[in-house]
């Protein structure tokens, strides 16, 4: 398509888009005064019903838990797609030499490692009580993996983060979510119905299945990110390492 | 204030759209798409904001306190995850295109050959 014809197509499309956005925004309730009956309802009932204090987590992993299952599988499918696309480019056996490391780097990384692991575990374990949740925790866990990458270098990392470690982890995360849902079915309740009872409000032992689902998504998100890192790094960095920086 | 909050979302969206429309580099295009999608985060959070409302997390906040809409926050979370996966797929395709055609300029990738 030539730039000329493209402009002919683009301008009317933009005009329609602008009209739709304008019309949509014009009818919204004023800022700070939303019509949110569903949200208000959840804010009232989530704590008494589920005994978790983070209503967003209760929404994600309980009231809209089935949506989140779909979301987990969007992530799963996309990562599968990336791995399929890049697989033949990442036949990296960990050969070749790493650049010599700066002495200060491992010290800084070791100092950052502990706090990051604690933050990630806290986000996953207490995500339904305080700000946090499985998705955020998974991203921080993947960040910890990147710290290790920086510390040990490409060669050791691709050996450690082989697909035989990350693939099962990703399956465990996505599958674990389904298993928690099926467990409710086996117990004679609807799919993904909250198990174990609500527990005591604001304590670790509250929210029933929400805590388990939190961990399932944390594992899924961390493994998915790790798979993306290793495959992109394999496709991009490995030839550079092998070719001596060429 | 109403106008300003919506204007921020529209401005981010238009910025991203301009980038996508004029991009000459698939990686740049993927990032512009992320910028475009960020407009939806802002818009969702604006739509759920309640004046004087606090976060919908009731640890240290009494039940019945004025809190913002938790649904839009959960939707924003979904939105971010979808955004990341889409970007990852586009970047993988960009890598493939670079390997096959030695370019990531969409202009030069116009006619895909087998």
Could you give a quick summary of the protein structure above?
The complex is a heterodimer of chains A (about 250) and B (about 110). By secondary structure, chain A is mainly alpha-helical. In chain A, about 70% of the residues lie in helices and about 0% in strands.
Structure characterization notes:
The complex is a heterodimer of chains A (246) and B (114). Chain A is mostly helical. Chain A has one domain. Chain A is 72% helix and 0% strand. Chain A is built from eight helices and no strands. Chain A is globular and about 60 Å long. Chain A starts with a helix and ends with a helix. In chain B, α1 packs antiparallel against α2 and α2 packs antiparallel against α3. Chain B is elongated and about 60 Å long. Chain B is mainly α and 114 residues long. Chain B is built from three helices and no strands. At the A-B interface, α1, α2, α3, α4 and α8 of A face α1, α2 and α3 of B.
Largest sheet of chain A: none
Q: Could you name the ranges of chain B where pLDDT drops below 50 across 5 or more consecutive residues?
A: none
Number of helices of chain A: 8
Order of helices and strands of chain B: HHH
Q: Mean pLDDT of chain A, as a whole number?
A: 81
Provide mean pLDDT of chain B, rounded.
Answer: 86
- Total number of distinct structural domains of chain A: 1
Structural class of chain B: mainly alpha
Q: How many strand elements of chain B?
A: 0
Shape of chain A: globular
Overall structural class of chain A, as computed from helix and strand content, comes to mainly alpha
Tell me the radius of gyration of chain A. Answer: 23 Å
How would you characterize the largest beta sheet of chain B? none
In percent, how much strand structure appears in the residues of chain A? under 5%
Helix content of chain A: over 70%
Number of helices of chain B: 3
Q: Termini of chain B, distance in Å?
A: 53 Å
User: Rg of chain B to the nearest angstrom?
Assistant: 19 Å
The tally of strands of chain A reads 0
Poorly predicted runs of chain A are none
């Amino acid at each position: 398509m030539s730039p000329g014809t493209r402009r002919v197509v683009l301008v009317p499309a933009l005009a329609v888009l602008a009209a739709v956005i304008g019309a949509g925004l014009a009818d919204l309730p004023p800022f700070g005064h939303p019509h949110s009956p569903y949200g208000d309802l959840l804010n009232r009932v989530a704590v008494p019903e589920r005994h978790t204090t983070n209503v967003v987590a209760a929404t994600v992993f309980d009231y809209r838990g089935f949506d989140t299952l779909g979301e987990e599988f969007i992530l799963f499918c996309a990562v599968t797609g990336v791995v399929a696309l890049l697989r033949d480019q990442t036949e990296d056996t960990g050969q070749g030499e790493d650049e010599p490391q700066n002495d200060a780097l491992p010290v800084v990384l070791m100092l950052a490692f502990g706090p990051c692991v604690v933050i990630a575990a806290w986000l996953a374990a207490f995500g339904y009580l305080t700000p946090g949740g499985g998705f955020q925790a998974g991203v921080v866990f993947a960040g910890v993996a990147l710290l290790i990458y920086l510390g040990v270098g490409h060669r050791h990392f691709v050996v450690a983060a082989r697909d035989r470690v990350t693939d099962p982890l990703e399956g465990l995360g996505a599958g674990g979510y389904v298993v928690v849902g099926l467990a409710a079915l086996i117990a004679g309740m609807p799919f993904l119905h909250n198990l174990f009872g609500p527990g005591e409000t604001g304590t670790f032992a509250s929210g029933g299945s929400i805590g388990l689902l939190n961990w399932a998504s944390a594992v899924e998100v961390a493994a998915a990110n790790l798979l993306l890192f290793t495959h992109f790094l394999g496709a991009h960095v490995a030839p550079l390492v092998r070719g001596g920086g060429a | 204030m109403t106008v300003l909050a919506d204007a921020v979302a529209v401005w981010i969206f238009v910025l991203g759209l301009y980038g996508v429309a004029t991009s000459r580099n698939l990686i740049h295009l993927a990032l512009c798409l992320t910028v475009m999608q960020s407009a939806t985060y802002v818009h969702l959070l604006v739509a759920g904001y309640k004046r004087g409302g606090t976060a919908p997390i009731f640890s240290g906040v009494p039940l019945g306190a004025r809190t913002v809409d938790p649904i839009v926050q959960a939707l924003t979370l979904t939105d971010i995850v979808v955004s990341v996966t889409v970007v990852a797929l586009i970047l993988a395709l960009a890598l493939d295109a670079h390997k096959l055609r030695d370019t990531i300029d969409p202009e030069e990738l116009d006619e895909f050959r087998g």
